Amino acid sequence: MNNSHNSRRPLAARRLAGVVAAAAAVSIALVSTANAATHAAPGTRPHPADTSLRALAEPTGLRIGVSINPDRLSDPAYAAIAGGQFSTVTPENQMKWDNIEPTQGTYHWAPAEKVVAFADAHGQKVRGHTLLWANQIPSWLTDDVGNGSITDAQLRTIVKKHVIDEVSHFRGKIWQWDVANEMFANSWDANPLPDGINGDEFWVQHLGEGIIADAFRWAHAADPHALLFYNDYNISGEDGTNAKADAVYAWAKKMRAEGVPIDGIGEQGHLDTQYGFSGDLERSDLQRYAGLGLKVAITEADVRTFVDSAATQVPTDSLAASAQSNEFSQELQACLEVRSCISFTVWDVDDADSWVPGTFAGEGAATLYDVNLKPKAQYTALQQTLQLAAGAPRR
Ligand code: G3I
User: Fold this and answer.
1) pLDDT for 35
2) Distance (Å) of CA 31 to CA 45, 195, 375, 382
3) Residues 201, 238, 282, 300: which is the catalytic one?
4) Is 227 strand, coil or helix?
5) 284 Cβ closer than 6 Å to some ligand 1 atom
6) pLDDT tens digit string along 331-382?
7) What is the pLDDT of residues 22-37, one digit of tens each?
8) Is 2 near ligand 1, meaning CB less than 6 Å away?
9) What single-letter DSSP state applies at residue 341?
């Protein structure tokens, strides 16, 4: 979501048209379900009556999630998709520190609580996102660190309180916490530490890399039952060298050996059709993390491409839609093929809310639903992948 969000919001009438079209598609599917049930050859599986992503995923044991924006939940079409298609939700921004504590000492829990209540009402689990990240830190903190009025020793006390207060507030309500986010260096970062952690990362720079393990310890003390994840991008399948994935793997192994309470690795899964991606490499990287006794998850899947405009987000390349479907499907398949992969979350319900146009000029169309909340080919591709996976064993 960004400043141009409102201008890109679809008209209610156009949304409704999208919903009607989707409903028509569902009734066609139901008719073919009846036919399939009548004529199916012995041993074949009938087309299921409930073709939502969450229902199709259920036999596989995998949960399908989505990041949501609680401001959009008053739109019945948006809420129906968020509640009906997915079995986990992630608040896109509402659990980040700048939203939770905009003024020092004054907590603003309501928007995040709204997401938790929505999940509860729809039988969904919640991914908490995120406790320790260099972005979306409140300005009262960054300003005072910048001008020296918060010392590094004080900063440590402040971040400890932040982690403990937030995890305690939501104790028992969060399935997975992204405890630390994006701490490792990319190939273009200037100052990687010897183990691959980004030496220029805000928290590492001020408090040393040990702050990551400490954040896991504090979170565990505050909610011993929540699954605690390290979350990052380019850490399975997207990076040709696999160097970042190697570094995260070695670090996670060390954390496990030292008894740090880390339960999982989250691969964000942001893809772009202009770059290469290997579903095979993703699967083997996920499997490698799993080999450490960790759970894994795809936490922020989307596949962006070049589009006509930020308002309409129609792909400009005629091959884009099939490339996007293919990459979404490969990502889901990689997760399905690793038994320890417990959730596959897509980032944002629809293109109208996606972060992509605000960040990558000329790109968009990254989600499963278009700017009118109409399901795209990518959505069908995930349905198909899930249906085919239902009979296959997970390794
Ligand atoms: O809430 C303020 C509003 O008060 C202000 O008027 C407006 C002016 O720009 O900004 C609003 O904040 C925006 C915020 O989203 C909430 O809408 C920020 O500018 C905007 O930068 C922020 O973007 C979020 C981005 O993280 C920040 O880094 C995206 O919505 C969110 O999708 C994105 O999500 C991240 C994951 O957390 C971590 N992995 C990468 C992913 C994509 O960047």
Assistant:
1) 37
2) 16, 57, 19, 21
3) 300
4) strand
5) no
6) 999 999 999 999 999 999 999 999 999 999 999 999 999 999 999 999 999 9
7) 333 333 333 333 333 3
8) yes
9) E
Q: Is 238 a catalytic residue?
A: no
So what's the pLDDT on residue 42? Answer: 55
* Amino acid of residue 149: S
pLDDT tens by residue, 321-344: 899 999 999 999 999 999 999 999
Cα–ligand 1 centroid distance for 114 (angstroms): 18
Query: For the chain, what's the residue count?
Result: 395
Q: How far is CA 152 from the centre of its chain?
A: 31
Q: How far, in Å, is the centroid of ligand 1 from the Cα of 172? A: 27
Q: Which residues contact 333 (CB under 8 A, 6 or more apart)?
A: 279, 283, 385, 389
User: Are 316 and 308 a contacting pair, CB within 8 Å?
Assistant: yes
Helix axes 320-336, 377-389, angle to 10 degrees: 30
Å from CA of 359 to ligand 1 middle: 10
Q: Is the CB of 139 under 6 A from ligand 1?
A: no
* Structural tokens at position 293: 């006794």
The ligand 1 atom nearest the CA atom of 96: 37
Rounded CA gap, 267 and 276, in Å? Answer: 16
Name the closest-CA residue to atom 30, ligand 1.
1
Is there a catalytic annotation at residue 58? no
Q: Which of 9, 355, 363 to mutate to test the pocket of ligand 1 (most atoms within 8 A of CB)?
A: 355
